[in-house]
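Hi Q.,

Before the meeting this afternoon, I wanted you to have the flavin-adenine dinucleotide prediction in hand. No need to reply - just skim if you have a minute. The sequence and ligand are here:
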Amino acid sequence: MRDFKAKTHWGEPPWRIDFHPTPRPIPEEVDFAVVGGGFTGLSAAAWLRRLEPLKSVALFEARSLGAGSSGYTGGITLAETAAGDLPGLGDVLAGFSDTLREFAMDCDLTLPGVWELGRSAGLPDSPISWTDSGELRAARLVPGGTVDPGKLVSGLARAAEKLGAQIFENTGVENAEFHEPLRLDVRGSVLRAQNVLLATNAMSLELSGLARRAQPKFTLAVATEPLAGAQCAALGLESGKPFYTIDFPYLWGRQIPTGGVIFGSGLVDLSDWRELADLDIAAGEAAELIAQLEHRIRGLHPVLHHVKFTHRWGGPILIADQWHPVFAQHPRSSRALVLGGYSGHGVALSVYLGRWAAEVMLGRRALPDWASA
Ligand SMILES: Cc1cc2nc3c(=O)[nH]c(=O)nc-3n(C[C@H](O)[C@H](O)[C@H](O)COP(=O)(O)OP(=O)(O)OC[C@H]3O[C@@H](n4cnc5c(N)ncnc54)[C@H](O)[C@@H]3O)c2cc1C
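Predicted structure with the ligand bound:
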């Protein structure tokens, strides 16, 4: 497909996705089609089969699994949405942990809490004291932690396939006709589906009906070389808690098992999601933002003055109206659901709401009250 290049120039995150589905012929008809092989689509596909083993499920991914946000994420697991807690949202982290347990997935999940950092309201005993447009200090500890996103993508996909979902990589859905049954154009043929979940996040916004409701952006991250224990202690990061700022300029980060630290910041505006295909982190605005980020990191603390960077990368995020995730019926069919637009807070939420979407599609649960907001 023209809109999905096999290879993008988004750089290399420190994660590895080691699962690829078994090749198989595309079916002519399924009970449930899932479009998008990130955390949302994979969680929904696995849960559909887990809850209704007799219903057929096919998941279509335009490139490789995790090739959107999910393979390029920072992997910080958060309890709330980007708009905070929403009425009836429930316990995201407990639901996320349940899914990992249910599918026996080891994703290096730890939940030590997440530091919110601020320039004006730091705790008197803040372990963090960095220089970044003022003094950046820990202001509050909120629930959450970290996960290995490569293991999360692989684990969900492995579970979904083991439960009987048919997963197709390099198979973009080019168009949908919203009749009954729904019809999807896939690799030159037409697949009929009783129900469809569109989990395409920042891409295919015409297909998902989100073109006017959400803005695609591209955001950047870097990882440092391994730091010694004493350096981590000097930075205030020895407890393994990830962090994000609650004022601007924005900065988030976490440690990785090598001993390195990931830092992320910066947004490239896009006028059309198709610009993602040509975005190159070594050129233009993305390269400038990475250079600014590295300069900022070296200025945060003396132990980082000469730090080397081992990974540089970026990935898409979808910012929805009022930062509310979108979880709604497709405007053109009650048999199609749209889920995504987590505005950069989607790791735990996508897996949690992917299960909820499966339950809605099976008629076992209603959409949440905030869904059409
Ligand atoms: C650099 C970065 C850091 C981040 N850090 C964090 C963090 O620390 N914590 C946090 O909570 N969130 C974070 N996020 C956000 C989080 O990663 C996302 O919200 C989450 O991964 C979204 O998952 P998803 O499955 O909805 O979307 P995606 O992972 O984007 O999946 C959508 C998939 O759909 C596929 N697709 C699109 N169109 C079609 C089509 N027509 N046919 C078939 N397939 C199609 C795409 O190729 C893609 O694989 C970060 C994001 C980025 C980019």
